[in-house]
Predict the 3D structure of the following.
Amino acid sequence: MLAIHAVPAFRDNYIWILARGGNAAAVDPGDARPVEAFLAQRGLKLTAMLATHHHADHVGGVAALASHWRCPTFGPAREVAESLDTRLREKDRFEVPGIGVRLETVDIPGHTAGHIALTGDGMLFCGDTLFACGCGRLFEGTPAQMVDSLAKLARLPGVTRVYCGHEYTVANIRFAQAVEPGNRALDARKERDTAKQLRGEPTLPSTIAEEIATNPFLRCNEPAVIAAAEKHAGRKLEAPVEVFAEIRQWKNNF
Ligand SMILES: [Zn+2]
């Protein structure tokens, strides 16, 4: 049976481990040490690594883990990262070595220029693009690119489990409530995820359906979100991409 484990790294990163039988695949292994500790503790062998984008907190452990385990590594075709041997492009499909899960690549530029997501078997690994109740900062892309990327992810089945790269959920919910104070689904989410955080549990994965109901960055067509963005901007906003850009800016300074 396939199991997905969250291995905490740095301050708030998650390295996701897919495990089946005695094998494991690591998604976004930014640091080799917690992965090695996890594998040793469970008696697992690393058979693959997958990376969503080039930031060091997502790929910093790849070289050390690859030299120990000699396993295949997969990552974005459009970003430079050493020691990634298979470069993935939009719609590329592959089977995760040793794990037997088939994943498909989705190009989702915005946070970085070549950021990819991997989806399959009811799961989505989306790095720093879609967060629980939030989205990544625009380091290398435009608001229009990010809006398109998020829309692609939002078209996945609602039950798809969303595994993101950081534990930002409770802070993100606080911002979402500032944008949309009347959204009751946010109140329920805050209560549940705050309780999880207090118990020291990951708030992830969430689901696409839950993100569509509560994530302001996926709700730029909602009248309440448009009204809040316009109030913050002090002017009329003409398109969803302008609404997105305004709330992204607002969140940066929140
Ligand atoms: Zn990043």
Observations:
- Residues 158 and 210 are 8 Å apart (CA to CA).
- Residues 53, 55, 58, 111, 128 surround zinc ion (CB under 6 Å).
- The radius of gyration is 18 Å.
- The chain has a mean pLDDT of 97.
